[in-house]
């Protein structure tokens, strides 16, 4: 009689994998994930790769402060956030190391109080990229424009201007709400639209979404009226319009 030996008989469970090795592996995995932290700064500081995921609150009251980034290739995918906390005219400069560039420049400056900039290293190509603008209120803007009791004479044949973009290039995203009751009143009809426009010559608005919230307010038509964004509503005569604006510079 022949005896057949299982091919799996020689496979034995690994017996030399100790609890200490498992602990060490877990520690290595934890070290691979940067831990976010916050640090107050009031003087020039040279950052290292160990500052990954750091949030630096910079007080430049006494003098301008420079934070120098590490060489990008030594800190691949590193991110760092810098916020100016004081109201002085002194700037907070985030500077490169060596021949690196920051979106093509050698540095970026945070000038306004509470303005924040976030940067990320792209690694081997020796560049840092800006993930947010460095100057509050310049590279993107947010705000509300409210108009009360805007009168429309007759349906789509007439409308009213609700926003005039500046002539500089950029992309405007407008979140527009209209209702037929003033603040504190109970509206019978409410609509909410999202409109995008780029104020180049002869621009035309693009309606991304159009939503009826309450009642039957009728369709809205958005047009460029001599450089202003105009809305006409298919029904109703008086609307209270709120425009929430987000502007992204090109």
Low-pLDDT segments: 135-145
Strand content: 35-45%
Number of strands: 18
**Percent in helix:** under 10%
Could you say which overall geometry the principal axes of the C-alpha atoms support?
elongated
H/E element order: HEEEEEEEEEEEEEEEEEE
Give the SSE layout.
Elements: H1 19-32, E1 37-41, E2 45-46, E3 54-58, E4 65-68, E5 79-84, E6 92-95, E7 101-102, E8 107-110, E9 116-121, E10 127-130, E11 140-151, E12 160-163, E13 170-179, E14 190-197, E15 206-214, E16 220-225, E17 228-233, E18 238-249
Parallel strand pairs: 1-3, 2-4, 3-5, 4-6, 7-10
Antiparallel strand pairs: 5-9, 6-8, 9-10, 11-18, 12-17, 13-14, 13-18, 14-15, 16-17
Describe it for me?
The structure is a single chain. The chain is mainly β and 250 residues long. It folds into two domains: 31-130, gp9 (Jelly Rolls); 140-249, 4-oxalocrotonate tautomerase-like (Immunoglobulin-like, Sandwich). It is 6% helix and 44% strand. The chain is built from one helix and 18 strands. The chain has a six-stranded mixed β-sheet with strand order 1-3-5-9-10-7, with no helix packed on it. The longest helix has 14 residues, at 19-32. The protein is elongated. It starts with 18 loop residues before the first helix and ends with a strand. The relative contact order is 0.12. The model is unreliable at 135-145 (pLDDT under 50).
């Amino acid at each position: 009689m022949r005896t057949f030996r299982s091919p799996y008989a020689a496979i034995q469970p690994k017996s030399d994998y100790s609890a200490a090795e498992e602990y060490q592996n877990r520690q290595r995995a934890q070290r691979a994930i940067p831990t976010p932290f916050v640090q107050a700064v009031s003087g020039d500081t040279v950052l290292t790769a160990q500052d990954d995921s750091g949030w630096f609150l910079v007080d430049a009251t006494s003098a301008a402060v420079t934070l120098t980034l590490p060489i990008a290739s030594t800190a691949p995918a590193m991110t760092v956030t810098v916020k100016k906390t004081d109201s002085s005219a002194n700037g907070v400069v985030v500077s490169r190391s060596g021949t690196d560039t920051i979106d093509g420049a050698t540095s970026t400056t945070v000038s306004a109080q509470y303005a924040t900039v976030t940067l990320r290293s792209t690694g081997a190509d020796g560049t840092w990229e800006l993930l947010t603008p460095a100057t509050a209120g310049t590279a993107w803007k947010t705000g509300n424009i409210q108009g009360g009791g805007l009168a429309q004479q007759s349906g789509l044949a007439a409308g009213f201007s609700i926003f005039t973009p500046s002539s500089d290039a950029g992309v405007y995203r407008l979140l527009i709400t209209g209702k037929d009751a003033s603040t504190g009143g109970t509206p019978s009809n409410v609509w909410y639209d999202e409109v995008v426009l780029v104020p180049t010559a002869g621009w035309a608005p693009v309606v991304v979404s159009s939503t009826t919230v309450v009642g039957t307010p009728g369709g809205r038509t958005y047009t460029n009226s001599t450089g202003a964004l105009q809305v006409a509503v298919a029904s109703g005569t008086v609307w209270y319009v709120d425009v929430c604006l987000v502007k992204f510079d090109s």
